[in-house]
Design a protein that fits this description.
Chain lengths: ~325, ~260
Amino acid sequence: MFAIEIKNLTKEFNGLRAVDNISFTVNKGEIFGLLGPNGAGKTTIIKMLTTLLRPSQGEARVWGFDILKQKDQVRNSIGIVFQEPALDNRLTGRENLDFHARIYGLNRENRQKRIEKVLKLVELEDKADILVKDYSGGMQRRLEIARGLMHYPKVLFLDEPTLGLDAQTRHRIWDYILKLNKEEKITIILTTHYMEEADYLCQRVAIIDSGKIIIQDRPDNLKNILGGDLLSIEAVPERKALKIFEKFLWVKKIKQHNGFIDLNVERGEKKIPLLMKIDQKEEGIEIKSVNLRKPTLEDVFLHFTGKTIREREVSQSEKNKMMMRRRFKRQ
Amino acid sequence: MESKNLQTIYVMWLREMKRFLRAKSRVIGTLMLPFFFLFSMGFGFRGSFNLQGMPQSANYIDFLVPGILGMTMLFTATFAGLSVLWDKEFGFLKEIMVAPVRRLSIVFGRIAGGITTSFIQGILILIISLFLGFKIPDALSLFLAFVFMLLIGFGFIGFGIAMASKMEDVHGFSLITQFIIFPTFLLSGALFPINNLPDWLRKITYFNPLTYGIDGLRLSLLGFSQFSLFTDLAIICFFDVIMISLASWFFSQTEI
């Protein structure tokens, strides 16, 4: 049995396909990442899997339970940390946990033990009796993770767990996530638009764009698709340079974007001298800079969509603005 | 399953109590309005007012107190129901919605919490009115007044939850206050006998459930009323059933 099993899941909002015929599985004990720009449909997938939204088509099982027919069993098996905070900030941290434990039917003894345990896990023991409105953003997120764990869920959903947090807090949250995956043997499915987050945490990722899964695999396999190293070259005139680079046999793939030419090569450090051998005067080009690096998931995304995640998000937000304008006009 | 739903109702109630006890300034804030009405109008119109059928010894403050009690229940109960909106705004509603419990028990828990807090506030206003010279005839009148206070409360909490379930954010809050709560209050006979109104306006008040609630309160506390006890009880109970059904229905349908 899989922890999560999705078949042809689709969700439409007013004729717009937010999630478009998606299928994937998540293994037990795995950390699985849904990676993609804002507006790609990640949160909508999470909302359907957590029984908050009805899918338009398709089916899904969480821990073996059908998300439409066995809602209560699904809800009992999962813990969720939402993208936006979902705490009662007029209660203390402990009271928030207590509320959660009671509503999930934990008995008194179990409740108190578990509260101590999860507080310790996220290192909030000494802040437990402070009102949540006096918590920092990072503390709130940690408390939410703790709360998601209260009722011993089998699967934990984390929707953009580090959104809006500073780098230090982000790394701390990553460590908690890895720790609880190991210690509580909990399956984790997280969404993120931070490439390095997916790379660092996930055993497998699915890259999502415009409601579709573009590719899914282990992060290192994905990066290997691009072949060893990446040489980013800035050269003018671009078209002429492109033609010259194309002739090299050691170039496995070549891609042009944003004034850079990306070459996928093996052992990039040995290839830079070869570039230096090009007689720039003779060929009529000028190489302005060369940058050698290992490919990241960002490059994988770029490779498959032709755009970086940030570029994708800009065009997405423009699309949203258009929709907003249309909506206002209608009113 | 049964005990789990009861547990949910209890947890929702418990949360409401904790928040209530912590929000002393807010409670004082909501009680200020009925208090000022009671204080200023009660003294302002003292003695200038006599109504057929009212006991000779009674003055305007006696007439006003049941009205202000009804007003307090109207405001506090509607606000308690509308507090669903704040849970939406701060995201806590999602935490409640993904819990493996019946939505109906969540609604009932909210109603239980809201009715407790607004009843406490109603009693506080009643106690204040004692200091202004109001007298409660006997235990039976007090009991009957409590019944009417609770019945008013249930209906308007239901109304608040139903509205909040249909609204997307807190921006509609002041609209509801100004276009529904205040007219309901002013056209209920809380401040003056509805017989003083012109015919067409009086007819409107007959469609106002609070009219019967306040009439019932006046009947309980003064022995003076426009409608029979049965009419008052029947109409307000009918209102409660409708509102609580709507609240349950709309809230269950909420998607977030």
